[in-house]
Structure formats: C-alpha cells, structure tokens
Amino acid sequence: MSTIRRYGWLFRIVCCIILLVAGCAEHGDFSIENESEPRRDWVKEMWGKRHTWPDRLWDDSVDTFTDSNNLWLLGITGAASIVMHNSSADDDIQDSVEDNRVIDGFFSESLNIVGGPAAHFAVTGLWYALSVNNNDKLNEDRAWTMMTALSINGLATVGLKAARNNKNPNGDNWAWPSGHTSSSFTVAAVLDEFYGPKVGIPAYALATMVAYRMVEEGDHWMSDAVFGAALGWAVGHTVAGKHKKLELAGFDVVPMTVTTMGKPASGLNLVKKF
How high is the pLDDT of residue 46? Predict the structure, then answer.
C-alpha cells in the first residue's frame, strides 16, 4: 500500500487522460479550429478572467441553491442523512460493508486518488490549458464550466463540513458530506450534461464506486456519501446546464439579428464547423 501511495501521481496522470478523452469525445481531438490564429497562453487567459470569475461563481451558486428542485433534493437527502446517522442505519451499513469487502488494495487506492477533488481540479486545469493552446473554444468553455462547478461544490462541501464537524468511522473530523463523493458526482453530472449518457453513465458508475469505497474504508458514513452525491449532482447539472451550448442535430444554435428592408428582425442561425 505504501508503494501505491508513493506512486499516486501516476494515477493522477491516468485520470487526466481519461477525462481529456471524454472532453474530446465529440470532436475527435484538440484540433486547431483556425490555423491562422496564433496559439494563446492559457496562464494569461486564466489571469484575464480574474475580474469576472467571482461574479460567475456567485451567479451560478445563486442559481444552484435557489432552484426549487435542487432545494427539494438537498432537503430530502439532508433529512435522510440525519435520520441515518442518528439511528442505527449508519452503524449497521458500516458493519455490513466492512464484513463483506469488495474493494481492496490497489483498486481501493486507485479510486481514492481518481475520485479526489485535487485530481479533478488538476485534470480540469490541464483540459483548459490544452484547449486554450489549441484555440478550441468549445472545450475551453466546457473546461471553464467544469472548473466553476467544482469550485462551487468544493466551497459548499467545505462549508458544510466545518459547520457539521462530525467524526467518520475512523475517528477523523469533518465527515459530512463526503468530499470525494460530491466532487465525483459533480464531474459526472457536468459530463452527462455536455456529452449525454454515453459518457454520463460510465462517469456516474465510477462516482458510485468512489462513494462506496469511501464507506467501505471507513472514511465516511453512508449518510455522508448519500448527501455528497445529491450535492454534486445538483451543482454539476445546474452549472453545466446553464452554460452548455444549445445544439440541434449537431448544429450550434446561434442568435441572429438582421435588418430587412430597413426593419430589424431577429431569429436563429444553425452553425456547424467542418
């Protein structure tokens, strides 16, 4: 196990490759859209967003946590997690999973790394950097949306952990909600919004395995994982759904305003790049 942890960076690289492949799923690769455009510096691009970043975080957070459907979901799962923890449910589930382990050793440590928020931010940063470098505006926007969703989820998770400050089965503090679970479900929800079930279903399956692993290892109670999954789903779907491009039969739907016979007219354009 110590050897696995020592080479944990290798798993982060693997995670990067997996998400980058998913990020290019609809375009084949990070091809340059306009060969005449010079390559841009992704550091300068990120620095240039510093003025709009706080406003975007705030606006997307408000949209997420004022949505009635999200509030119902978080309220129900929050209440369920309280009942589970204050009754014998959490203890019974913990005893059951520990007695019937299905994830162990190398696989367990791999899920711990791949499902970690640090890996998700690192992969998203690489996705953004490559997209900017190759003038791939679509993937640049999608990577920035992923970064926004992960940031909102991370801030919400840390805030709830600090407020609740309960212990996990291993005796460590800040158990509720599970950060690995909420971050993994945020990633899955964003990918599902952008690429549909072909990417979303495998991403949700991996997120579920991460959540189960956290319970099995005693890093979290089942109630921590349940609410973490709901939180990540709500944040990911709301943020990605708000910022994804509208498409119709593979064409981008773009607003259009023209002047016909001296009178303004509005409509929609269907645009597709080849």
Answer: 63
